[in-house]
Design brief:
8-stranded mixed sheet; 12 helices
Amino acid sequence: MKPMFKKVTIVGMGMMGGSLGMALLKNRIAKEVCGAGRNIAKLNQAKKLYAATTVTDNLEEAVKGADLIVISVVADKIAYMYKKLLEAGLCEDTIVTDMGSVKKEITDDICGLKGYKDNFIGSHPMVGSEKKGVKNSIFNLFNAGNCIVTGPKESKYVKKVARLWKAVGMNTVFMTPQQHDDAVAGISHMPHLAAFALLHSQKDCIKNSKDIIGTGFKSMTRIGASGEDVWAGILYANKEQVIKQAQRYRKEIERAEKMLKAGKVMPYIKAARLLRESLDK
């Protein structure tokens, strides 16, 4: 079967970029995957893992001949990276997408750049890991996951980006950038902030009695091991929506306390259980 893309360039070959490169090559979605970045040693590691067929630290080489570029850097550097692609000779026929967890600020910043090519389509594959680096890449990371694509369905670029994510096994959902940020503040960003807070609240136990900590606490705080360089940028970029969700969460904690004090916690737990079970139906 003919590959969907001749050349896909992935800028930023960390865990997410590496996983995408592996999926593109394993499933023969792209004939060539070019891994681009600043650290040649890490890029060569991506090549050894078959997450890329070629690697470069030269953006002019990276953009040349690419029919799709995926920006896989931290959220607060995505617009900057698009600007660098423009400076490197980005062609207006090259589709550019990303894997960032914030959309409104990034899209506005990119569309406001001088020389913008009207070729950026935001993507957010709702998968990942708290582990970092291309060495932790997973070839089937995207299988059966959901990917939010921001842009009008009728756009040929949006259709092509949606096809990319479907080809690596994802379900696609279409939203505006603002709808995306409103939604993920509650289901992605706030859970991370809550995990960070929960870990801080139990730091004495973690330091002095960690042998008694079981799987429940570890499961709840798994995402608390996520990298600060990634998550600080995400939380800042979607700060207003995350603060709203934090206030909502605080009110719910207060409500749970009142139910506990009043001896009415059983129906509260039951309602929560039914909500959780509905996620898997």
